[in-house]
Design brief:
With 180 residues, the chain is mostly helical. It has 4 helices and 2 strands, in the order αααββα. β1 (120-126) and β2 form a beta hairpin.
Length: 180
């Protein structure tokens, strides 16, 4: 139960009936102590409800803080990985192939800081045990000592040492049924 005090105020009237009593437009009591006392009484009587609302608010803040921290950590980790691998921002592909003059023209652009040419081939292969199944392959000529952009990140094994070895993706291993 909330007890309210009656607050009276004298309003300014156009006929100035109360011009001589000096209480025009002033409140006789302030509302701040009444609101404060009413809030304290409500908290004392309904402390369980207040605690539940406080816990809900704290859980909401904790969840939002966790989401923010997780997003920030993922952004920083991704940025670090891209910096470590020197991932490129733009890839230019030509069906007829790019010439050395094309690469030189790209290097001459003022907004380009680094250019690296790369040869790649696409092929479709069939598994040795099942002629009906096929999987796509993308061959990329990769010389580690000459590679500055878009470096590889090995999860398992070593870099190829001769032409009979290759680096493969997990998807290739899954599709082909091969293993390392």
């Amino acid at each position: 139960m909330v007890v309210m005090r009656k607050v009276t105020a004298v309003s300014k009237q156009s006929d100035n009936k109360n011009a001589n009593n000096g209480s025009e437009g002033k409140r006789t009591h302030s509302l701040l102590p009444i609101v404060f006392i009413s809030a304290i009484r409500m908290w004392v009587r309904e402390w369980r409800r207040f605690c539940v609302l406080a816990v809900i608010a704290m859980l909401g803040v904790a969840v939002m803080t966790g989401i923010y921290a997780g997003c920030n950590d993922m952004f920083l980790a991704t940025n670090d990985m891209y910096a470590k691998l020197h991932a490129y921002d733009l890839q230019i592909v030509s069906t007829l192939g790019l010439t050395k003059d094309d690469v030189a023209a790209l290097r001459a652009l003022p907004s380009v800081s680094e250019v690296e040419a790369e040869r790649s081939w696409k092929a479709t292969a069939h598994a040795t045990d099942d002629a009906k199944s096929s999987y796509a392959m993308n061959f990329v000529h990769y010389v580690e000592s000459q590679k500055n952009l878009n470096r590889l990140h090995l999860l398992k094994g070593n870099m190829p040492k001769n032409n009979s070895e290759a680096v493969v993706t997990q998807r290739f291993l899954h599709d082909s049924g091969l293993s390392i």
